[in-house]
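REVIEWER CHECKLIST
Item 1: Sequence provided? yes
Item 2: Single chain? yes
Item 3: Sequence as submitted:
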Amino acid sequence: MLRHFHRGHLFWRCRHCWQEMPDLTATQASILKYTASLEKTVKKLAVV
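Item 4: Structure as written out by the authors:
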């Protein structure tokens, strides 16, 4: 896999077919951040 930066986003490219693959570590980090935000909201609602 080759690291590739395009239009402000990091991608990985396959050396054989040149297909773009998203950077899953960045995607996973944003999902974890969103999940933490949802957990905070649920805790606030449980207190009320």
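Item 5: Key structural point noted by reviewer: The radius of gyration is 17 Å.
Item 6: Recommendation: ____
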